[in-house]
Design goal:
By secondary structure, the protein is an alpha/beta fold. It has one domain: Rossmann fold (3-Layer(aba) Sandwich), CATH 3.40.50. Helices cover about 20% and strands about 40% of the residues. The chain contains three helices and nine strands, in the order βαβαβββαββββ. It has a six-stranded mixed β-sheet with strand order 4-3-2-5-6-7, sandwiched between helices. It is globular, with a radius of gyration of 16 Å. The relative contact order is 0.22. Bound molecules: guanosine-5'-monophosphate.
Length: about 180
């Protein structure tokens, strides 16, 4: 029999402490600027809402969604924007808010897509970073937590659309009896 089990990786207390640190850092570095925060759906929706409420700089919000088609669960590189921005980007300070940077392919595509619209500046804030799994060189400007391997759920992140609502981050394991 094969089943799934999950184990807490990052408890909610540590998440809220780290989110506040990120928000403080962004607020310091962007003091005096107006930000357009762009959340990458769906995984970043909870992180985005916590982050913008903890920041001390005025910001507007928008969302974008990308899909990556290919075999298996890994990003294929064929990234397509399935929900585009509604607000104008030109001349604005953009903060892209993402759940996880894994291969880097999704964020690379989203950053290129937004750059073509001539923003004043672009920064990326990722809740989690799986640095060792990159297929393209991509560095986020702000990272909540770094992790090695494993598949995580909770705090907006799903497994087949389940578990997004969980307040803590869990790592999922496949158990073979
Ligand atoms: P990348 O293009 O960087 O490989 O893919 C990033 C996307 O893959 C993330 O935005 C996220 O949706 C998904 N992803 C990567 N690793 C995980 C994981 O451990 N858990 C979940 N739920 N999604 C992941």
């Amino acid at each position: 029999m094969t089943g799934l089990s999950k184990e807490i990786l990052i408890p909610r207390s540590e998440i809220s402490r780290r989110v506040q640190e990120l928000a403080d850092q962004i607020s310091r570095e962007c003091a005096g600027e107006e930000i357009l925060a762009i959340g990458v759906l769906k995984g970043a929706f909870i992180f985005m809402s916590d982050l913008v409420r903890a920041m001390a700089v005025p910001c507007q919000t928008d969302f974008i969604r990308a899909a990556s088609y290919g075999a298996g669960s890994e990003s294929s590189g064929n990234v397509v924007i399935t929900k585009d921005l509604e607000l104008a980007v030109e001349g604005r300070n953009i903060l892209i808010v993402e759940d996880i940077v894994d291969t880097g392919l999704t964020l690379q595509h989203i950053v290129d897509h937004i750059k073509r619209r001539n923003p004043k500046s672009i920064k990326v804030c990722a809740f989690l970073d799986k640095r060792k799994r990159r297929k393209v060189p991509f560095e986020a400007d702000y990272v909540g937590f770094s992790m090695d391997d494993g598949f995580v759920v909770g705090y907006g992140l799903d497994f087949n659309e389940q578990y997004r609502f969980l307040p803590d981050v869990y790592v999922i394991r496949t158990d073979v009896d």
